[in-house]
Amino acid sequence: MQLANRIRAFRKLKGLTQHELAAETGISLAILGTIERGNRKVTPQELSKIAGVLAISIEELQGK
């Protein structure tokens, strides 16, 4: 599974909307949307913020 799909799946598993995840990470809704669609690579800082809010490790989020 691609990282974009994993982010979306974990977000939904935690019961968060894109808007809520964007607000909690400080990542704009537009950027989060492009990340989840796989149209933009995630920076290490963004990945860390997303993993933190989703309460999972970066490795787990990456599927490692």
UniProtKB/TrEMBL annotation:
InterPro entries assigned: Cro/C1-type_HTH, Lambda_DNA-bd_dom_sf, TransReg_Diox_bact_type
Statement: the UniProt record of this protein carries the keyword Protein transport: no
Alphabetical keyword list: DNA-binding
UniProt-listed SUPFAM superfamilies: lambda repressor-like DNA-binding domains
Record-annotated membrane-spanning stretches: none
Keyword NAD: no
PROSITE patterns: HTH_CROC1
Stretches assigned to the HTH cro/C1-type domain: 7-61
Protein's recorded name: Helix-turn-helix transcriptional regulator
Species assigned in the record: Paenibacillus cucumis (ex Kampfer et al. 2016)
Upper classification of the organism: Bacteria, Bacillati, Bacillota, Bacilli, Bacillales
